[in-house]
């Protein structure tokens, strides 16, 4: 049976430039291009005007779109001018990509949060393309589709929040990505580059709950799933869900679900 991928990754890679780099294609690129600036800075041309591309900017180009990229010396904080630019780039195509692209307007440059989850999708696509054996076009196509759908979700979220809300959203992402390990309020605030007091205020204003309560809610949901679907000992569930000790976890779990973790495991499996 021949597999026909709904979308194709023609090339995927990561580049880090320490020397000037320039590319100009008036006739555009041949395929769809997703280019994520991860470090440093570059420049592109949009409607004839130069545009600075910063870390977190995603460049989106369709076949035949004029493409311009320039990487030169830039002045960064407390340093001499230097060339420094890192990016993931994916050239892709296929009927699924064409359909996805046409679902909504695609800006040439889109600012998105550089979360570990989002970066991980680019990283995984690059790793799949580098496989010399056991490569799978099915897996590559699935990763590409997930990446594109994640871009749409992030686009929707970004339009719906204010600049202050953006900081709260970054903190919320930090909590969700690090919930399984212990961390402090200072770590959450530092991720958004703000003070702890401002972090607490902005989070409460944006989501109507405290950071601590949201952390515990996320961890309790993780624990509930593991209690139901894994054979993991309850003390291990508590530990791997980020709780400092089992007594604290037990008290929070009973308060949230109305029964102890042991009782919930018995109840949930009876319902399956």
Short description:
This protein has 272 residues and is an alpha+beta fold. The protein has two domains: 8-160, Regulatory protein AraC (Jelly Rolls, Sandwich), CATH 2.60.120; 164-271, Arc Repressor Mutant, subunit A (Orthogonal Bundle). The protein is built from ten helices and eight strands.
What does this structure look like?
Helix 4 (163-178) packs across helix 6 (196-207). The chain is 47% helix and 21% strand. It has 272 residues and is an alpha+beta fold. Strands 1, 2, 3, 4, 5, 6, 7 and 8 form an eight-stranded antiparallel beta sheet that branches. It folds into two domains: 8-160, Sandwich (Jelly Rolls); 164-271, Arc Repressor Mutant, subunit A (Orthogonal Bundle), CATH 1.10.10.60. A hairpin with a 2-residue loop joins strand 3 and strand 4 (49-54). The chain is globular. The chain starts with 7 loop residues before the first strand and ends with a helix. Keywords: DNA-binding, Transcription, Transcription regulation. It holds the Pfam family HTH_18. InterPro entries: AraC-bd, Homeodomain-like_sf, HTH-like, HTH_AraC, Tscrpt_reg_AraC-type_HTH.
List the defining traits of the structure above.
272 residues; alpha+beta; Jelly Rolls; Arc Repressor Mutant, subunit A; 2 domains; 8-stranded antiparallel beta sheet; 10 helices; 8 strands; 47% helix; Tscrpt_reg_AraC-type_HTH; transcription; HTH-like; DNA-binding transcription factor activity; transcription regulation
